[in-house]
Amino acid sequence: MAKLLAIDGLNIVRRVYEASPEPDSDLKASIALRHAFSSFRNLLETHAPTHVLAAFDYGGQTWRHALYPRYREHRAPMPSVLREALPEFQERLKTAGVPVAMLPEVEADDVVATCVMRWLLENRGEAIVATTDKDLHVLIAHGALVWDHFKNEWHDDAWVRNKFGVAPELLHDLLALMGDATDGVPGVSKIGMKTAARLLNAYGSLDAVMAGAGILKTPLGERLRAERDILYLSRQLVELKTDVRLGVSWNMLAYDSH
Asked: Which keywords does this Swiss-Prot/TrEMBL entry list (predicted)?
């Protein structure tokens, strides 16, 4: 049976880079990318995929910025030494037989989600997502598995429920309610993960929360009503695009381990 490995490329590169304590420099970038390349090789050896795709952010404005100009406004930009070293790193990946995808106006998450959903809908086999990004864990609801390369552990339905308090299919509703500071997704004020999970488990979905808790004469009900527009905007921002025109065929993603 075929097996797709979709790698959240920048997630791995940045985690490796930020794990080094020394200040930004060309040397730090080249050492980090050498380690990152080993990480990619380990992923391929560990999972032995028949098909592989490494997705990277193209950079610049995305469809999320068009919806909400303050999206990611507080996020530290990628160190320039790392950004300048990336094209050569991506060429190395391609030479090693790993196709690289980066498309304007979408994020790597959208590329991974599109590829994985298409694969699963066509019943092609297993789909593994290599990432530590919480947004991509929603793909578990559709049959994918997430692999945390840094902890060497699988994330499945039970892992998501244990970590976030909701089923994978409710993860985006949870992130919309609680917001996501790293991406600048506002969420509803004073709602944290536990309250968001409690609401979703009680009512079943974001719309049901708004229909039920959102009409209560409590401070929480009042906040939900007052911040309804922000909540639904947040829900759009955390949604993964699954209709990106990738411009690749499965044959182009076929991986030969020899």
From this structure: DNA-binding, Exonuclease, Hydrolase, Nuclease
